[in-house]
Amino acid sequence: MIKECRCGHTMNIRLRTVIYQNKVDIDNVPIYSCEVCGRSEVVSHVKPELTALISKLGSKPDKQQYSFHELSEIAYLLLKVTEREHMNDSVEKIVEERINELLDVLLLAQSLGDTPWMDDIRKRLSQLSQNAIST
Fold first, then answer.
1. Whole-prediction pTM value?
2. Taking CA 44 as the corner, what is the angle to CA 33 and CA 97, rounded to the nearest 5 degrees?
3. What was the pLDDT predicted at 134?
4. Would 39 disulfide with which of 34, 83, 98, 126, CB 3.0-4.6 Å?
């Protein structure tokens, strides 16, 4: 997941904190960053979730903090691959484990008849299937 910057150099993905309206810290947002010119931009795969969160906050939010990896499966997986205990695991293995985990939770939610929880899990699975991560 590397991108070329307008300046011609490579932009790498970093998990950064996005500050909205100087009041809301949104941690672990995947951002492309160019170390040469300093340009940054949100990774396109997570823009829908970030935009939805910002819309929900409104124009005058209270001071608060969010962990974006709790809303975005892409951010969750990027955070997971940076953890020390997963440094020897392939991205494919981490993605497969997350999908299996979500499917197990979906079965639990279905057995409890918890429709909002099932909808949330389906949305998370959809994020993974729509945004297949290439290594």
1. 0.80
2. 95
3. 43
4. 34
Q: Which of 9, 79, 4 is nearest to 46 (CA)?
A: 79
> If we measure between CA atoms, which residue out of 5, 1, 56, 4 comes closest to residue 26?
56
Ranges of H-type helices in the chain:
47-57, 73-81, 91-112, 115-130
Q: At 91, is the pLDDT very low, low, confident or very high (cuts 50, 70, 90)?
A: confident
Question: What is the chain's length?
Answer: 135
For residue 59, give both structure tokens.
Answer: 């124009």
- Chain centroid to Cα 120, Å, comes to 15
126 CB-near residues (< 8 Å, 6+ apart): none
The DSSP code sequence of 10-25 is: EEEEEEEEEEETTTEE
Three-class secondary structure of residue 64 per DSSP: strand
Q: How confident is the model at residue 88 (pLDDT cuts 50, 70, 90)?
A: confident
Tell me what the mean pLDDT of segment 86-92 comes to. Answer: 82
Q: How many CB atoms lie within 10 A of CB 118?
A: 17
